[in-house]
């Protein structure tokens, strides 16, 4: 009996220890339930963060574009409305006074990095091969803070001086070109430039690897007829999940069109949400059966201990003390179960990672049981255990000592 | 006004079971009883006469359906459950026939239990008091044995030590020797008597054993829920 522990703690732990098998079985039972929840949560959040990471390795969190030009009704001389609500001709539009906007964006605390981009369609030509590509003029020192292009270079290096270009491994394959080879780019505006391939990248996305052609901002401005201008800003944020709200805010603020990665990947998010709902349903029912398990074991224990409860009441234990003693037993079972559960879940995850592998033998993706998840599981299981103990605890507190002692 | 020497005072106490139902049955029909400090009284009577029922009322484990009951001059009718529980814990000690120790605890811890539930946490004083009592009842060597590993006579001695640890004014014993062989019964009975003499603790003992009843100072005889005889011995 530790001197600092209150009666309720002493009695709860003694009762649990005395009921060896019963306590052990229910704690293991709770552990199995918790392990399912923890395993599932870890898997899901691992999957999610992995997919998000993959998506964002080749995509900015927010892209700011010039406003969609509003199609204006064209007025004929005689005042009739023209028959067409005509969209303006497809022409690359530039962001006005982009340096000013860049400085303002850079000062916002929510924004981690801003990179101006001049981009447009072009054709990459080499020998007989002719590929439609997206030309991206960037300032590498800014752009790499948004997309880690420098870390994705698989051959050569990221050098974009005048006359340099960096292309994806797919395009390199399609064109049969490598580092040091020349590449001609024809832009839509008719301008042409011949560049030297200084590096090849692999951004982990086949489409991007086949399409993106990086050049220096100035080269792109010339090729795309955007001299001094840019076509968009790429932004990276401190909190990626605030992208949509911030995008709407920025659109209102700057008058530019703002597309968040959340909006451009809406389908992905819908899938994620429905996955989360179904896993919540599973979690709820596992939690429920854990609660019923704890409650039923404690109900039996109250019946078994009726005499002891009666004698405790005769010796001056109040209803409140007995209520708390049994609530605590529920909480302790939940807490111990959650520890076993987290350990089991870690084991399952290790097992799962040895099984789920890419064809080349590398793990499909890396997941682990985060300390925060263990903590949440412990808190949740303790709470569920305490709540589940409520009915048995009330029975214990309500026992008539006369009946209990005689019984 | 109750005299301060009255540890227990019952006047016209009734007890019915199944109150309000067609099966209502009155077990105790107007009990008048006073016990003074230091008395050592036997409650005797045939089986089913209501001895345990009366003891439960006096021990505040149950409430009378009529009449007045005071412990140490304090009326009990106005107390709520917690008030009754506290009064019971502090003023009354119980010794039951079926020892009723708590097996998850050691002998020492069982003796400490009334103080533990009263104070909320263990402390050195309760440990000392419990140890001293266990030595007095001759179990100084067995203090740290689990309660379940003691013999019947030893368990009953622990129960007596437990009943005394709060220094109650009244100890209620319901057939304390009913489960013991003659030798152990004599020992347990002598122990209670010794404590009664040494501390002036009042004892009310239900017993079927005429031999033991003979060793009490007063005989209260209950028949069919009425006290039919109350005489000094
Ligand atoms: N909860 C109850 N409901 C109804 N009747 C009860 C209840 N408890 C006791 N009785 C009845 O009250 C009467 C007295 O019982 P009690 O246990 O007080 O007798 P006793 O004198 O202690 O008998 P014994 O010597 O056998 O222990 C008995 O007829 C018993 O059936
Ligand atoms: Mg009886």
Measure the end-to-end span of chain A: 29 Å
CATH fold-level label of chain B: Rossmann fold
Element-level helix/strand string of chain B: EEEHEEHEHHHEHEHEE
Major sheet description of chain A = 6 strands, mixed, barrel
Question: Can you tell me about this structure?
Answer:
The complex is a heterodimer of chains A (407) and B (233). By secondary structure, chain A is α+β, with helices and mostly antiparallel strands. Helices cover 53% and strands 20% of the residues of chain A. Chain A has 15 helices and 12 strands. Chain A is elongated, with a radius of gyration of 33 Å. In chain B, a hairpin with a 2-residue loop joins strand 4 and strand 5. With 233 residues, chain B is an alpha/beta fold. The chains are: A alpha+beta (407), B alpha/beta (233). The A-B interface holds A 1-7, 10-11, 14-15, 17-18, 307-308, 310-321, 400-402, 405-406 and B 52, 56, 59, 61-62, 81-82, 85-86, 88-90, 94, 96, 100-105, 109, 112-114, 116-118, 120-124, 162, 166. Adenosine-5'-triphosphate is lined by residues 17, 27, 45, 47-53 of chain B.
Annotate the secondary structure layout.
The complex is a heterodimer of chains A (407) and B (233).
Chain A: H1 7-18, H2 20-56, E1 62-65, E2 72-75, E3 81-86, H3 98-107, E4 111-126, E5 129-138, H4 140-143, E6 153-156, E7 164-168, H5 169-175, E8 182-187, E9 192-201, H6 206-211, E10 212-216, H7 217-223, E11 232-237, H8 243-254, E12 257-260, H9 261-264, H10 266-304, H11 306-314, H12 319-355, H13 371-388, H14 390-398, H15 401-406
Parallel strand pairs in A: 5-10, 7-9
Antiparallel strand pairs in A: 1-11, 1-12, 2-3, 4-5, 4-8, 4-11, 6-9, 7-10, 8-9
Helix pairs in contact in A: 1-12, 2-10, 2-12, 2-13, 10-12, 10-13, 10-14, 12-13, 12-14
Chain B: E1 6-17, E2 25-36, E3 40-44, H1 51-58, E4 66-71, E5 74-75, H2 81-91, E6 92-95, H3 107-119, H4 124-136, H5 152-164, E7 170-174, H6 182-199, E8 202-206, H7 210-213, E9 218-223, E10 226-232
Parallel strand pairs in B: 3-8, 3-9, 6-7, 7-8
Antiparallel strand pairs in B: 1-2, 1-4, 4-5, 9-10
Helix pairs in contact in B: 3-4, 3-5, 4-5, 5-6
Bound molecules: adenosine-5'-triphosphate and magnesium ion (MG).
